[in-house]
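Section 5.1 Outputs to date
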Amino acid sequence: MVDAGAEARPDTPRRRVLVTGATRGIGRAVATALAADFEVVVAGRRADAVADVVDSLRSEHSGTATGLLLDLADVGSIADACSGLADLDGVVHCAGVEGTAAAADLEPEFLGSVLAVNLAAPTELTRQLLPGLRRRRGRVVFVNSTAALQTFPGWAAYSASKAALRAYADTLRLEEGAHGVGVTTVFPGRTDTGMQREIAARRGTHFDPETAMSAASVAAAVRYVLTAPADAVVTDLTVTPAPWRNS
């Protein structure tokens, strides 16, 4: 673990939430949105990027944060990476890869790499964290995609991974309700992130941010899920760009 923060003051205990993919895009926006009221465990695979986010949360947002080096492409390493974690009140799965390719070009190695990060990794990470989540009656949030609900040409691997993640979340919710663990899937639509801009650049198209939401808007939805009253669970939440933005 990359330790980069002080413990919360005893008189102001904060719930502890781990955020994957927290060094960029929606994940970083989620970490920032939670910083004021939660102890955020910033998970990422690069030590410098993790440290940068932790420092930002502490200095710019008066947050309490620690870092966790976590390579979700290496599913077998997840158990060791999490072995020193204290019990969590929540985990927000934001990390993912886009994996665009035509179905005719979908080779096993490529499909396997997409499924590893988008499905196998959050599944294994959740399994490792469940004992602590049960003790804290915590919440598991999967930041999925509307591509799980409606696919597009070239998105076979990505949409399949996200649809499978949705099914996993639905099953987890049925199983863990008896243990007091809430499970939510958030389905963001088109969002202005580096990943979306990179996809557009590879296709030789222009990404228009006016057609998308900000990552902060998605993060606000995640924060709402985590701060909902204890007697309620948000099961599914779809967030899409406002239709009047271009009107």
